[in-house]
Amino acid sequence: MKYNLIFILLLFLTSCQEEKKAEYYNNGNKKTEGAFVQDSLKQGLWVSWYEDGTVEDSSYWEKNKLNGHSVSYHQNGQKASEGNYKNGKRTGQWKWWFDNGNLEEESNWENGEANGYSRIFHRNGKRRSEATFVNGFMDGELKLYDKQGQLSEITHYKNGKKSGKAELFYPTGKKEVEGYFKDDKQEGTFKEYYSNGAIKSETDWKNGLMDGNFTSYRKNGNLWIKGALKNGKRVGKWIEYDKDGNPIEETKYENE
What we know:
The protein is mainly β. The protein is 6% helix and 64% strand. Mean pLDDT is 93; it is low at 5-15.
């Protein structure tokens, strides 16, 4: 019995021993280096390099699962990403960078899913988006920005779907479009504006299809086109007006 216990103990200790291994490129530079336990499970610090010898990645493993701090680099040496893993899943704050050193993304993670505030940037360093995630789904207000950092869109989400008010903006900051969504589909009246702020059109939507009244206006504010839609198709009488607001053409569509 005593010898059996010793034999079992020796097997256990042998299985827990780390065996370091390295892989090389054809030019002799090291490609990867790290340790295995139980013959095939990555354990501890693993490092990988680009062919020119620049560090590509440095991560900690525990029995073949990423566990702990992880950093990756672009080939020019600039940091590409940094964060932590727990049981193979991202956790806590993560950051990503462009190869020019500018921050690309900053977000929070829990159990491998985006959770909390997230920011994304353009390559030039200007803001690209701001959003909040809950259990991997966008939830709340999404703001998008153009490459100059000017606000271009505000859309509300619920459980990863567009839900609530949505607005688009011209580079000048003036409103271009506004409307509402329900479960990712347009719902209610959408309004479109000219760059000078004048109303351009009003369209009724229902369950993601144009359904109801449609009215468009010229830049001078006069009526241009007026009609109705049903399930995305024109129905009834449509009238076009000249620049002075006088009717010039009338077309009738069959109700389907």
